[in-house]
Amino acid sequence: MMQLQCPYCGVRDEMEFRFGGQSHITRPSPEATDAEWADYLFNRDNLKGVHAERWYHGFGCGRWFNVLRDTSTHEMLGVYRMGAPRPALPGKDGETP
Amino acid sequence: MSAKCAHAADGAGAPAKVPVQPARLAKGGLIDRDAPLEFTFNGRRYHGYAGDTLASALLANRVRVVGRSFKYHRPRGVLSAGVEEPNALLEVDAGYGSEALVRATMQPLTQGLTARHTNSWPSLGWDLGRIVDFTRPLWRAGFYNKTFMWPGWHWYEGAIRRVAGIGRLPAAPDRRSYYHQNLHCDVLVAGSGPAGLAAALAAASSGAHVVLVEQDREPGGTLLFEAGRIDGETADAWRLQTLHRLRQMPNVRLMPSATVTGYYDHNVLTVHDRVDITHPQRAVERFWKIRAKEVVLATGAIEQPLVFAGNDRPGIMLASAVRHYIVRYSVTPGCRVAVAANHDEAWRTAFVLQDHDIDVPLIADVRSEPGEAVLAEARRRGLEVRLAAAITNTYGTKGLRSIEVGTLAEFVDGTRRDTSSVRCDALAMSGGWSPAVHLYSQAGGRLRYDSTHGCFVPDRCRQRVRVAGAANGSFGLGAALREGHAVGAAAAEAAGFATTARQYGHAAEADDYPVSPLRAHRFSSADRQWIDFAHDVTVADIEQAVCENYVSVEHLKRYTTTGMSVDQGKTSNLNALAMLAQLTARTIPQVGTTTFRPNYTPVTLGAIAGARSGELYAPARRMPGHAWHAARDAVFDSYGDWLRPAFYAKVGESREQAIRREVLSQREAAGLFEGSPLGKIEVVGPDAAEFLNRIYVNNVLTLKTAQVRYGLMLNENGVVLDDGVFTKLADGHYLLNTTGANADRIVAWLCEWHQCEWPQLELLISPVTEQWAALTVAGPAAREVLAGIETDIDFSAEAFPHMSLRCGLIEGLPARVQRVSFTGERSFEISVPADAAETLCQRIERAGAPYGLVPVGVEAVLVMRLEKGYLHVGSDTDGTTNPFDVGFGAIVDRKQTDFVGSRSLRRPNDQRVDRRQLVGLELLGGSAPLRAGAQLVESRGTGYRSVGFVTSACVSPTLERTVALGMLEGGLARKGDVVTGMDEGRQYRLRVVSPCVYDPAGERING
Question: Is B403 helix (H, G, I), strand (E, B) or coil?
Fold first, then answer.
C-alpha cells in the first residue's frame, strides 16, 4: 500500500485517498469538435515512467492535489497543488512522454 | 518394516502411563516428555508430547501414510518439516472448529486434537480413487481437453468435478476470533534463524524499533536442529541467550507463530499471526499490516527434492527434515535411512543419523567428485558411499521398503546394468536449496540465477529491503551470522540510528557447506518421477507440455498446474523449470521463474475478513427515527447503506397487503414517511449560483429565494447521474437534495469540479445529510394534520405553494419545510435537527391520528412514485441514459449556457431518435405481475429482437392494474403502440402510454 504526501495534511496511507486520473487535462470549450471532445473524454496517457496525476484526500482534508509518480516503481517524485504547473524533475524529464 | 529398531524408546524413560511411541528416540529434543498429549488421527488414538507438531507426533507413532495424492490417489507420507509441506495436508480440529488442508508440519500438537486424512475414499488404506493411478495415461496434463472430448466434455464434467478438488469445508461454525492490527516500525526482520537473530540484535542495539517475525512457534530457524558451534557454545545455547537478550529490549517486538505473507508497495508487509490459536478458550488469529522503514529478509531456503522414479513413496523425506525430526523432536523417520544427494551439505544427514545410532545403509551422490571433507568424514565413519549413483526406482506399497540404485553413466545409453537393491525404510533426499525469495520478489525485486548453488537469489530491488543468509544464497552458519549482523546494522542506520555494536556470534568456517548441486538426468520412466507432489505433476507431464510447445514457464505452470497447489510450488517450481530447461535445451536463467505472488502461505479467509463479518460485514446506517419505526413494527430492509422501514406489518398482513394499505391510506388520508437518508448538501458563497448553473441541466440563475426546483445532474459524458430538488435559501446560499444512495458521491463530485476545474469560483460545499432528519407528511389531509402541531409556519395553499420552502419553528425546533412530492400528493417535507426526529414523529403521529395518518415505508413510496411516473435514477436509468431519453429534452434545449455534460449531448449518437427512451407501459388484459427486467421484443425473421425492457413495474393499488415504466427504442414517438413483453417465456401485450398514469394534471399535488 502506497503512502502519499498530502500537501495539506502530511504523509498518509493510500487508503485515505482516491485516485483521480491524469492531471492537466484541459476541458475544451463547448465549440470543440466531436473528435476533440472525445479526446478529452476518453483518451489518456498510459505510460511507464513519471506520471502527473490527481489524488483526492477523501478521508482527510477533502482536497484535490497533484502527484508525480513513477508508474513502474511507485516512487513519489513530487506533490503540488491543484492549478500549479507541473514542476520540472532534474534527471527525470527524459522519461516523460 | 516390521523389525524393531534397537534405538527406539519402547516406553523406557517415559512415564509409565504414556503408551509407546515406537519411533521416539530415548532422549533429547525440544519436547516436554513430562507433558504427554493425546490426539486422534482417522479415529485412532495416539500420543505425543508438548512441543510436537502434528507431523512429528504422527511420525513418532510411525504413521507413515498420512494422505492420498491429489490426482493419482497415491499413498503419501510427510515430506518436510515446515511450511513447504505438499503431502501432509490434513483436516484438523484443535478445539476451535475444523479446518481443511492444514499442514501437519506447522500444526502444534494440542491435547484432544483430532485429525483426518484428505482425499481418500472409502478409507486411507483402501482408496477407490487409486484407479486413476493405474489408468494414468488417461490423465496427463490437459486431459480434460483431450481424453474426454467424445462425445463431449460436458458428459464427464460433473463426475470429474466431483472428484476434483481437495478437502472438505467445515460444517460447524468457526469458533475463532479474527482481528486486524496495524504497526509501524523502523526495522522489520522476517525470519529468526541465525541470520535473522543476528540482524535483529544488530538493529535493536542501535535503539531502533525492531519487529522480528517467525513463522514457527519457536524462534531459531535452523538453530533448532542443526549442529554447529557459535562463540564456542552449541547453536541452541546461543539461540536461547540471544532470544533472552532480545526479550529484554523494550524496542523489540518478537512475533512467533506469525508468517510474513505479503510484501506490498512502500514497505507494507502483511503478517498472519496465529500465536493464540492453540488456546481453545481464546483462539485468535490476527492479520497485521506493518509499515517498516527498513526490511531485512532472513527467510532462509527451502530444500528441493531429487527427481527419480518413485520419489513420492512414504518414507522419502527431505534430508533437512530428517535432521529436523531427529534433533528437534527426537523422532526418527525410519530404522534404516539411506541418503541421496547431489551436494555436500546433505551428507550431514547421514552423520546426524549415525550419531543417533540409526542405520545408514548408503549415501548415494549423483556427483562423481563430492567435497573432500564430507568424503573423508564418511570414510572415517565407515559409511557406505556410492558416487555417480542415482536412484532408479523405489519399492513398498504402504511405505518405502527398498530402493534401487544404479551408476549414472550406465543410464546415459539407456541400458540398465549393475543396479543394486538397498533395503531401507526411509530415504533422506536433497536436490539442493532454493532461497525463499518470495517476499523479495513480491517487493518488486529482481532475481539472478546463481549457477554455483543452482538456485535463484535476490539481485536488486527498489524498495528499502536487505537480504541475509540462506535467503540471499549465502549458505552456512558463519555466513548467516556475518551477513545478518551487517544487514541489520545497515538497516538501522538507514532508518536513522547510529550503530556501534560489534558482531555478536561467530561460527567457525568449517560449518559452511558448499552447496553445488548437479541436477539428475532422466533415466527411468518419466511418469513415475514426481515434480510436484501436491498436484501430482510428473516429468511426463512436463514432457507433454514441451511436446505441445508450452515452453514458456508461465504456460508450463498453467498447462500442467505445477506449483499451483496449496504449497504454491515451494518444493516443485525449481525442479519444474530445471526440467523445462533441460527438455528445451536452454539454461535455467533463460527459462526464468514464474511470478511470486502473495500470500507466501495460505491465510484463512477469517483472518483476511478480520472483524468484518456478521453484523460488522457492512454496518448499516440507521435513521434518526429508527427506534420510532421499530416500535411501530416496521419491517426493515437495506437500501444502499441504510436500514429503512420497507413497510409496517400489522398482525395478519402480508407484505403486499401492508404496502397496499399504506398506499391507499396516503392517497385517501395522510402518511408519514422518514426520508432522512436523502442527500442534503449546502453550497454557500458569492459564486454558488454560477457554480450550480454549470452543474445542473436546469437553470439555477432564475430561481428566487424560497423557491424549489427539480434538478438533473449529468456526468461529462452526458449520462444522467443524479436527480433531486435544489432550493435557494438566500442569495448565495443553496440547498441541494440528492438521492440517498448518491449523497456522498455527489459531494465528492462537486468538490472535484470546484477544486479541479473552477477553483476561481468562491464557494463552500458542505454535506449536511446527517445533520437533518427529513419527515414527509403527505396526502389530502396533510394540511389538517399539520394544523395540529405547534408552528409559526403558514401551511395554507396561498401562503405555501407547491415547490417552495418555508423556514420557521415546529414544536420549538428550527425547521426547513419544502413542499415537494415524490408520490403525487400534497406533501410537506419537514427537516429538523436529526436528534429531534423521534419527538417530531410522535407529535405528528398524535396530530394525524384523527385524520387516519399512517406510517409509510419505502416500498409504498416507490409504488406511488411509479403510479406518478417519476424517474428513479438507477432503476429507470443506467450508464447510457441521457436526459433526452427520459423526457427532459425541453429543459436541455432551453438552457443557453454550458453545463457538465452539455457538449456530449450534441454528439450525433446522443441525438438519435431511435435511442431507448422512457415510456409508460399499460398491460392489456388483466393485472398479471409484470417484472422489471422483462424484455420488450419485436419479431424479426423467425425470432425476436429486443427493443427495450421494463425498468419498474408494480400492481397499482390505486388504479387496480399493472403499471410499468420501460426503456423502448424510439419510445417517445410511439405513444399508443402495442408492444410485446417477454418474461421467462411468458408473453404480454403492452400499450405504450405516458409515464404518469395517476393524476396527470397534478391537481392533487398542487391542491
Answer: strand
Written as nine digits, the cell of B550 is 508450452
Quote the pLDDT of residue B3. 43
Same domain assignment for residues B569 and B639: no
Name the class of domain A3-95: alpha beta
Taking the Cβ of residue A54 and every Cβ of chain B, the question of whether any pair is shorter than 8 Å is answered with yes
C-alpha atoms less than 13 angstroms from C-alpha of B366 in its C-beta half-sphere: 24
At residue B520, the pLDDT reads 53
Taking alpha carbons only, the member of B928, B986, B994, B985 closest to residue B965 is B994
Question: Residue range A68-81: average pLDDT?
Answer: 94
Q: Are B299 and B596 in contact (CB under 8 A)?
A: no
Contact pairs from chain A to chain B, CB under 8 Å? 48
Residue B146 pLDDT: 73
The pLDDT of residue B390: 86
What HEC string does B702-726 produce?
A: CCCCCEEEEEEEECCCCCEEEEEEE
**pLDDT digit string, tens, across residues B800-850:** 999 999 999 999 999 999 999 999 999 999 999 999 999 999 999 999 999
Report the number of distinct structural domains present in chain B: 7
For residue B303, the one-letter residue type is: E
Q: In a 3-state reduction of DSSP, which class is residue B941?
A: coil
Helix axes B539-547, B553-560, angle to 10 degrees: 120
Amino acid, res. B870: Y
Whether residues B716 and B588 fall in one domain: no
Whether residue A36 is predicted with pLDDT greater than 60 in this model: the reply is: yes
Does A96 have pLDDT greater than 50? no
Determine whether the interchain pair B716/A41 forms a contact, defined as Cβ–Cβ distance below 8 Å.
yes
The yes-or-no verdict on residue A92 having pLDDT over 90 is no
Q: Is residue B876 part of a domain?
A: no
CB pair distance less than 8 Å for A41 and B265: no
In a domain? residue B110: yes
- Report percent pLDDT > 70 for chain A: 93
Residues B488 and B581 in one domain: no
| In-domain check, residue B872 | no
The residue segments making up the domain with residue B924 are 912-1007
Determine contact, residues B84/B567, Cβ cutoff 8 Å: yes
CATH code of the domain in which B718 resides: 3.30.70.1400
Residue B289 and residue A2 in contact, taking contact as beta carbons nearer than 8 Å: no
Residues of A in contact with B907 (CB under 8 A): 34, 37
Q: Which residues contact B670 (CB under 8 A, 6 or more apart)?
A: B777, B778, B779, B780, B781, B782, B784, B785, B848, B851, B852, B853, B854
3-state secondary structure of B6: coil
In this structure, what C-alpha cell is assigned to residue B605? 479467509
* B18 and B131 co-located in one domain: yes
In this structure, are B69 and B13 located in the same domain? yes
C-alpha distances in angstroms, B526 versus B36, B542, B551, B791, B876? Answer: 45, 9, 18, 91, 62
| Contact call for B717 and A41, based on CB within 8 A | yes
pLDDT of A95 reads: 46
Question: Do residue B752 and residue A32 have CB atoms under 8 angstroms apart?
Answer: no
Whether residue B22 is found in the same domain as residue B85: yes
How far is B558 from B224, CA to CA, in rounded Å?
37
Kind of pairing between the strands at B733-738 and B764-767 = unpaired
Name the residue in chain A with its Cα closest to that of B907: A34
Residues B52 and B123 in one domain: yes
Chain A residue numbers with beta carbons less than 8 Å from the beta carbon of B268 are 1
Segment 64-83 of chain A within 8 Å of chain B by CB: 64, 73-75, 82-83
Residues 6+ apart with CB under 8 A from B298: B189, B190, B191, B192, B193, B195, B196, B199, B221, B467, B468, B469, B471, B480, B484, B487
pLDDT-flagged residues of chain B (< 50) = 1-3, 9-14
